[in-house]
């Protein structure tokens, strides 16, 4: 994996040590996780990756809800996890697994997980008592914090709930017994109540302290959950898709609120999300997970603007073709040529390979496999190149840069041109998205008027083209 600008590998010379350092290794059946990550003070790191890549498992390991087979977790130089409970673990005497409530790490998921029998204020008061925060949220030192969850909720964390040391539950009602909460400080109930109300005001719920969770909307419940998580003064807050359950109108408000409150409190955070907007708005850096490994890491803009794998490309809404740089093009494994910006090709240049035959005037610069073209005779005139041994690279271009025509285009400027068949039509952010045949599948975005004018539908044979100046190339 090549380090990007803003990645830990390139920032190693900085004097400030990371707040959180972790190496985690865990094997469960066919899944194996093995990664290292760092988190700076006040930084937000987003974990991106497809389902099953290990994102939520990482959060559970950091929160102390799971023990790794091997590895370490250090927070502010303090060992929270060392060794593990399984394969290759150190001797029992050398292992460390600090309980979740004593790690200084909080957790906020897509479900608010509020205590249903407690008011909004009482939910936040619980966190204040547990965390032992001072009356001034801005100045309070970080203290122990529980991973707090409601007793009857069926979330992915439910299996850890029954033995939680901060909750002595009535078997009949599942109620919290305040006498079992540690870190009780010599503070008046009025002071704790005032602090809880202050936190609710910060998340836009002033005057709603007496409301039970059932009396609040989903967005309001998540605001209470955020206030509760921050009121416990965690040194690191784990955000597991906190906006996934919110509607399209509520999510942007909550996203902005999380951003503001993380900045106001100086809280470091690790965010798991499938929404690229979450990463863009909230994260300073992005780490991309695939099959339990970090395959890319760097500043958010760098990772999203120059994706190195198909998942991130799809997340960022761009087309991506992987291959090798040869001369002024990225050559795909099947020999197809994607000509790119001259500056990008020069920056990633490699020894040239034998040039393909020069196409006749008007022939395509690039095509899908001949047997997938609308007209095999036309596809025969499209040049292909040997794969060569240039540096691995990815060609990236926006769907809106792809021109769709029903007849083969004639261009004076350098363009990539290839035949394809439309396999899907769906709404897009700027019009209509057309999915087309080929491997990789190329997506074009056009206006609804163009679809109607050209009479396009699933199964239509078309010609696609994109200017070389619209295609960027990035080393993989």
UniProtKB/TrEMBL annotation:
Q: Which GO terms describe its molecular function?
A: ATP binding; ATP hydrolysis activity
Indicate, by first and last residue, each region the UniProt record lists as having compositional bias (Low complexity).
361-380
Name the source's superkingdom: Bacteria
Region of interest: Disordered: 359-380
Q: Which SUPFAM superfamilies match?
A: MOP-like, P-loop containing nucleoside triphosphate hydrolases
Gene Ontology biological process terms in this record: molybdate ion transport
**PROSITE patterns given for it?**
ABC_TRANSPORTER_1, ABC_TRANSPORTER_2, MOP
User: Is ATP-binding set as a keyword in this record?
Assistant: yes
Does this entry carry the keyword Nucleotide-binding? yes
- Record-annotated Mop domain positions: 411-475
Keywords carried by this UniProt record: ATP-binding, Molybdenum, Nucleotide-binding, Transport
Where the record annotates domain ABC transporter, the positions are 14-316
Q: Per its record, how is this protein called by name?
A: ATP-binding cassette domain-containing protein
Question: Which taxonomic lineage is given here?
Answer: Bacteria, Bacillati, Actinomycetota, Actinomycetes, Micrococcales
